[in-house]
Amino acid sequence: MKQRLKRWWFRLLGKDPEAVIVCFRSGPDDLAGAMCQQIRQLEPNRRCFEVSLEQAGEVGKKFRRYRIGLAPVLFTPDPKYRPLRRAAALLAPRKILAYNARLERHHLRLSSFIASWLFIKGVPLDRIFLRPRWLLPWRSDKTLRPRTHRIVEGREARGRKTVALLTPYFPYPLSHGGAVRIFYLLREMAREFDVLLYAFQEEEIAEADLTPVLALATQVCLVPKPRYREPRWSTLAPPQACEYDSPEMMRLWKQRRADVAQVEYTALARYGGDVLVEHDVTCDLYAQIWARKRTLSAWWDWRRWRWFERRAVRRFPQVVVMSEKDRQLLNPAARLRVIENGVDFERFQAQPETPGRRLLFVGSFRHFPNIAAFQFLAGQILPLLDNVDLTVVAGASPWTHWRDYAGVRNPPSHPRIRLLEFVADLRPLYNQANLVVVPMLESAGTNLKVLEALAMRRAVVSTSSGCAGLGLEHGSTAWIADSAEGFAAGIARLLEDPGLRHGIAQAAYAYARSRFDWRSIGSKQRDMLREMVGEPLLVRSATSQDLAAIARIQAASPEAAQWSLSSYLQFECIVAVIGQVVGFLVVRQTAPDEREILNLAVDPAYRRRGIARRLIEHQLIEHRLRHMKISWFLEVRESNAPAIRLYQSLGFQVCGRREAYYGPPVEAGIVMRIYS
Predict the structure, then answer these.
(1) 169 with 202: CB under 8 angstroms?
(2) Within the chain, what is the greatest distance between any pair of CA atoms?
(3) One domain, residues 240 and 324
(4) Which among 132, 156, 489, 550 has most CB atoms closer than 10 A?
């Protein structure tokens, strides 16, 4: 009876009694198509119509005789679709099922007008109904802070000074710049210190990814990252810091047994420690965003970070920044130390460039400025260029980060753009590229992607932000432009002028080689840690009073060369002193730009403490500070495997072999060389 009355009523009104669905394609074709397909799957038995932008003016007339049961409408930031959305609101104001660019859906209702307004504005559906804890303390959807942890044993502890390292993620695989820096400096620290690694775990870590880190750290403590459920505007502290508020990690961190505690990233500053590593001056990054956007939310983000960061810098006895520019941005009077980013020159070795017009952009979408840079590159720069191909490496899980920042499911496809996710080995991509582009609109710290490009001898076109803090010069070691037109013109110029392109690449390689080698940077890191632990080791020139101790150490080291003691003071001889002489190194000059290490030995009671490394690094750094380019040679017994490993870790490479060089016992000498 009810159905007959309904049919009679709608016939009286001149409408079809069966409700239909009208899908409004008020967005990009791929998103609109996906929305319509989803609706057909949800309602397979109902008639479904689709309306495009061109039909916006005919909607009322076309569907006058239909009863509208549902009106799915796509809401994206593009203003050109507003007429179609307006037509949907006039046709079926109470039946609108709103879709956002993530293809989440929400019924628009006056009874929940705040939630509906937030959804239309692009707030993710799972965050629309969040309310501040201080406003509704009884709410059920609270931040989840796991109370579990996992401890994995690594390399054997060697009884050395211990460094505890706290990071916001596990630093392997090397999927973004922060992981690269932490991993390489962890390797450098492990040469002289026992390292305890405390890391937040975002997802399950594969055993193959654990292995490289366990070879460096004596112990790894993993704590699941909290699931943060507060509105991002509602806290005085930046939300990025609140995301890592874990009572479990705080408990474990306070129980650490270490001589020095180093915290990576300002967001973790509330955990406290001895050293804070500012991978970037974050308030500078948000100041750039506020200057560009001039919105209330951008201002609030900048103010929060400014307050939080200044307070963090005051709390730590030692703060590390990436460049002199960053040091000036913070308080230069504070205990700030510059330890730059670097690159592995042994791993990143270039092959000759092949002709072409291929561009490469490496930028993990985990770091939101890289998404803004990609949008700038694809939307404004690429349309100004002809006949170029662009490869983009977006890092691990890029589409999750893309949706959170851009508000759309995936970037629009483009025939000249190849989008890749995480790539374990970037070297083939660098070798294929003719130019590396770094179109950052805002950036802080220094970009490792630029250093890798320089190591691979590829010319870089960058904005000022993209290469800030590295000391690159326009037209000499990079091409720097900030406008889309200038950036595109730089790309075109360098692609059309191979001589200029190769000249910039070679000059940039030489510049980076002299300043950004991880070994040199690692020595700075160890120098800082030695100061923090009060390392008593002193390196100085030898005197005649030291010869008796040198003779004792040489006699206790049969694997070392057995030279005449009377000749040592004729050369460059230095000693390591811990209350007494515990090691020595002798070097002689064989040519104006050539030195030979004659002998190196450490008292057996003081070995495995990094003393031999300190002695060699002291000489290498001493000449480097004098801006002297020196070829260093040495010979080592073929059977002395620990010494060979030490020299290789310092960058020495095998370049020859001398049969029956040592004796007794008679043994071949391995000739090794480094150019520093």
Answers:
(1) yes
(2) 119
(3) yes
(4) 550
For residues 393 and 398, give the distance between their C-alpha atoms in angstroms, rounded to a whole number. Answer: 9
Please give the distance of CA 559 from its chain centroid, rounded to a whole number.
43
Give the gyration radius of the chain's Cα atoms.
31
Q: Which residue has the tokens 């930028």?
A: 363
State pTM to two decimals.
Answer: 0.80
The reply to whether 182 falls in a domain is yes
Q: What is the DSSP string of 385-449?
A: -SS-EEEEE--SSHHHHHHHHHSSSSPPP-TTEEEE---S--HHHHHH-SEEEE--SS--S--HH
Name the nearest CA neighbour of 268 among 411, 404, 165, 147: 165
Kindly state whether residue 399 falls inside one of the protein's structural domains: yes
Same domain, 283 and 364: no
Instruction: Give the Cα separation of 21 and 42 in Å (integer).
Output: 11
Task: Say how far apart CA 11 and CA 14 lie, in whole Å.
Answer: 5
| Same domain? 14 vs 115 | yes
Asked if residue 250 and residue 154 are part of one domain, the reply reads yes
| 382 shares its domain with 494 | yes
| Domain end (from 304, 338, 372) | 338
Structure tokens, 191: 């040469």
Boundaries of domain holding 447: 358-516
What CATH number should be reported for the domain holding residue 328?
3.40.50.2000
What are the residues facing 324 on neighbouring strands? none
487 within domain boundaries: yes
Residue 98 CB partners (closer than 8 Å, separation 6+): 72, 73, 75, 105, 106, 107, 108, 116, 119, 120
Compute the average pLDDT of residues 627-636: 80
Quick one: 401 and 311 in the same domain? no
How would you list the strands of the sheet with 96-99, edge to edge? 48-51, 16-24, 66-74, 96-99, 105-107
Residue 145 has pLDDT above 80, yes or no: yes
What's the pLDDT at 277? 96
Which one of 189-193, 242-246, 622-626, 660-664 scores highest in mean pLDDT? 242-246
Asked whether 651 and 676 are in contact (CB, 8 A), the reply is: yes
Which of these, 424, 457, 452, lies nearest to 438 by C-alpha position? 452
Q: Return the structure tokens found at 32.
A: 């609109």
Alpha carbon distance 575, 244 (integer Å): 46
Of 244, 511, 647, 662, catalytic: 647
Specify if 530 maps to a domain. Answer: no
Query: In this predicted structure, what is the pLDDT of residue 618?
Result: 82
Is 647 assigned a catalytic role?
A: yes
Token pair belonging to 424 = 């374990």
Reply yes or no on whether 496 is catalytic.
no
* The total number of structural domains that make up the chain: 4
Task: Exactly one of 243, 452, 635, 662 is catalytic; name it.
Answer: 635
Higher per-residue confidence, 484 vs 514: 484
Tokens for 322?
Answer: 């990436």
State the distance between the two ends of the chain, measured CA to CA, in whole angstroms: 95
Do residues 324 and 448 both lie within one domain?
Answer: no
Convert the pLDDT of each residue in 179-234 to its tens digit: 999 999 999 999 889 999 999 998 889 888 999 999 999 999 999 999 999 988 89
The pLDDT tens digits for 420-453 are 998 989 999 999 999 999 999 988 778 889 999 9
Do 295 and 201 belong together in one domain?
yes
